[in-house]
Amino acid sequence: MDLLFALKAAVLGVIEGITEFLPVSSTGHLIIFSNLIGFYDKTNKAYVDMFNMVIQLGAILAVVVLYRNKIIDTLKNLLPSKTTPFIKSGLYFWSMIVISCIPAGLIGIKYHSLIKEKLFNPLTVACALFVGGLWMLYAESKLRVKHHRSFADTSITPWQALIIGAFQVLSIIPGMSRSASTIIGGWVAGFSTVAAAEYSFFLAIPVMFGESLLNVLEMKAQLSGMEWFSLAIGFIVSFIVALLVIDSFITFLKKKPLRVFAIYRIVFAFVVLMCGAFGLF
Known about the structure:
- With 281 residues, the protein is an all-alpha fold.
- It has one domain.
- The chain has helices at residues 3-19, 26-36, 45-66, 68-76, 90-119, 122-142, 158-168, 178-188, 193-219, 225-255, 259-277.
- Helix 1 packs parallel to helix 10, helix 5 (90-119) packs across helix 9 (193-219) and helix 8 (178-188) crosses helix 9 (193-219).
- It is globular.
């Protein structure tokens, strides 16, 4: 472990900050690039898998900062009152988030170690990127909702929350993308693209906090000083970059289709497979 390792961690932080909220799978990109730049080798697989998961929390903290007014409002109006009906209360909002987290939580907790062992590899990522790209093209042509209401102007029912949560299960497979899965789930539930994306931001807060905590608890006794330093570098860089990306992504969604991301996924999947064929992984 040396400063070059920390520099590679910063590069991965940039990649994470850019890709976390795009429907291209940040986890998949981290797996691919941690292999390509030599951040990963067979001796540090457990650390790299944990690193790739935990630095995503840095990007999620950007959501907390940018949407802090909404979060604070839900806490101020946590309980229903004469002026705040139940469906407008923070309790109702966070209850919907909990409902959406249940499907992925049940599967993720039970198969957490197995998923990291068997699926965190470039071949799985390439296949998931390709299949997910085709799925996005189909979903956008058949399921995308035409209106552009934001999440603040959208009501959500427990059934809609469960639908989105069920789609989020797909993101357990690295390369599928939590953003893509929840946006398509939002379309099925009747949300606009912007509303579905914003809901996925809030949904990521408990999901990523839970996954990151689980990973750190598994590894904390084994980490060296340089590993902690590299983790901190990746975390901070991903946070800063994500702050710059989120608003641009929402602006894009208001004007453009997701097709460009689907095409990118398909092309990138072939690039990854070619890299694998030439022994770069």
